[in-house]
Amino acid sequence: QVQLVESGGGLVQPGGSLRVSCVVSGNISVMKAMGWYRQAPGKERELVAIIISDGRTNYVDSVMGRFTISRDIVKNVLYLQMNSLKPEDTAVYYCNGAAGTQWDWGQGTQVTVSS
After folding, report:
1. Nearest to 110 by CA among 18, 16, 25, 4
2. For residue range 41-78, what is the model confidence (pLDDT) as tens digits?
3. Letter string b/e over residues 8-45, b meaning 16 or more CB atoms within 10 A of that residue's CB
4. Which residues contact 113 (CB under 8 A, 6 or more apart)?
5. C-alpha closest to that of 86 among 36, 13, 18
6. How far is the C-alpha of 26 from the C-alpha of 43, rounded, in Å?
């Protein structure tokens, strides 16, 4: 069973940047796709960024041009660099598989964008 441990969240002002990380207890280089998800209060969890096994990436429109997903296949760590943050980006951020296979959700990491 793959375990997922997210970290790096915090409080940031609008317009600021933050990088969150996800340590994966498995070989992410062989995983079909990995993604970053977020869940805001009172809303359903949504997929915001995906990285496919060949390195291609894709994003939901609301974060396109501001967020960048990347991975370190040696350390088995997934990253999400978030720039130009907005209050509506406030949520708990999670990582997990994004092409059918998923594992138990980690605890997530809270990102709060507020002045």
Report:
1. 18
2. 999 999 999 999 999 999 999 999 999 999 999 999 99
3. ebeebeeeeebebbbbbeeebeebebbbbbbeeeeeee
4. 12, 13, 14, 16, 85, 86, 87, 88, 89, 90
5. 13
6. 30
